[in-house]
Amino acid sequence: MTIASAPVAGVDLFTDPVLAHPHGAYRTIRNAGPAVYLPEHRLWVLSRYREVRHALNHPLIFTPAHGTGLLDLLSIPATGATSGRTAPAGPSATTDASAPSPDLTITALTALTASSTASPAGRATPLTLNDLETVIVNHAERLVDDLVARSSFDAVAELATPFALKTIGDLIGLPAAARPDLMTCAEASLQANAPLDDHTLRALMDLESVFTFLTTELTASCTPASATPASATPDHAATCGHDPTVHLLKTFAMPCVYTIAVGISGMLWLLATHPEAWHALRTTPSLVAAAVEESLRLEPPVQILSRTTTRDVRIGDTLIPAGGRVLLLLAAANRDPRKWPDPDHFEIRRNPTDHLSLGLGAHSHLTATVAKTHLRAVLGALVNRAPALYLDGTPRRRITSTTRAFASLPLYATQP
Predict the structure, then answer these.
(1) Choice between 96 and 366, residue whose per-residue pLDDT is larger
(2) Domain holding 78: CATH number?
């Protein structure tokens, strides 16, 4: 089947009305066929669970190597220097199945955490995931204690965002003053998955300068001069060089911070608007992990990814040519009735651990593990402390081209 005879959807995914309420458009595209052509943007779209999962599982065919977004012009600097030259576009602030091996990210994290954690013998030791979980849970409980004592709070400004920036900022050693820029950079880089529109232009205006600043700050924070003597070795210095720092920011810190902050606010919005689910969690706290998975399925931090085909690919009766730009609608795939019954319903007992919200692959596993630990920690702390959770005003969405985050989410948590 050629482009002329392929299923076509007369839907513009990037208009403000659709961005504000996308699921009707997603349903139209999903019903049109397994692979649909959008002539206005000259894009192919995969929106059904089976096809999106297949594309994520085959990064050599559906590759992000030519840039994960629709803007080939977007590049993030390869070093901390502003030389006017940019590196080829790398993975944006989202999990990516075909990103470089996670070994470099893990090595950089090990060196950074080792510089701040001493063993009884006085030697620096890296944090384990169990150590990190303890830190995350303790911080979540302190933060939630304060918020529940006040009852009314904004879940975005006073919980989700500061929690993510604090824990990930501490983990990678980013100075506190630079941490808000980490969120700014993560949000801006995600706009690479959208056409060049007003939202994209506003987000990308300062991306290079902000990323350069973050790279410089993080590199300075983990140089041998600022490290403990035990960690100030040539290997540590090499690990903290510019390339590993950029890699760490792009493939771990940025996606983690964004996923945590947006994931928490989406989860709490669902629970505040579904009191029966909150009651079920209070009655059966063991459902917290399942509730996290279900909230990520319905409210994925990233709605859309972009890929490029490396060869002709047949999806159903449709042939997508080599070099074709393909949008993967994660949010649509997560609500595919072919995969889940009653997919628009929030059911915390569903436990959909195979949703696609956090991507697939090694980097996805690392980001997902850390992000889900944060969501479980916050939800567990709130469920243990607040008999009920309600909206305390009108939530406000942030309209962007590839995400659907909250700008404000006023909540009221009742006290025991």
Answers:
(1) 366
(2) 1.10.630.10
Quote the number of domains for the chain. Answer: 1
User: What Cα–Cα distance (Å) separates residue 184 from each residue in 78, 189, 202, 285, 376?
Assistant: 18, 9, 11, 34, 24
Torsion of CA 324, 329, 330, 336, to 10 degrees: -120
Q: Which tokens hold the place of 122? A: 């006085």
CB-CB neighbours of 138 under 10 Å: 12
Residues 367, 358: contact at Cβ < 8 Å? yes
Contacts of 267 by beta carbon, 8 Å cutoff, 6+ apart: 291, 292, 295, 296, 299, 375, 379
3-state SS string for 59-110:
CCCEECCCCCCCCCCCCCCCCCCCCCCCCCCCCCCCCCCCCCCCHHHHHHHH
First-to-last C-alpha distance (Å) of the chain: 62
Residue numbers of the domain that contains 8: 3-413
The pLDDT tens digits for 57-93 are: 999 999 987 655 555 544 443 333 333 333 333 334 4
Q: What is the pTM (predicted TM-score) of this model? A: 0.82
Long-range contacts for 346-349 (Cβ within 8 Å, ≥24 apart)?
Answer: 346/270, 346/274, 346/277, 346/294, 346/295, 346/298, 347/294, 348/277, 348/280, 348/281, 348/287, 348/290, 348/291, 348/294, 349/280, 349/287, 349/290
* Residue 400, pLDDT score: 82
Q: Report whether 149 contacts 415 (CB < 8 A).
A: yes
**Closest alpha carbon to 219 in 99, 108, 104:** 108
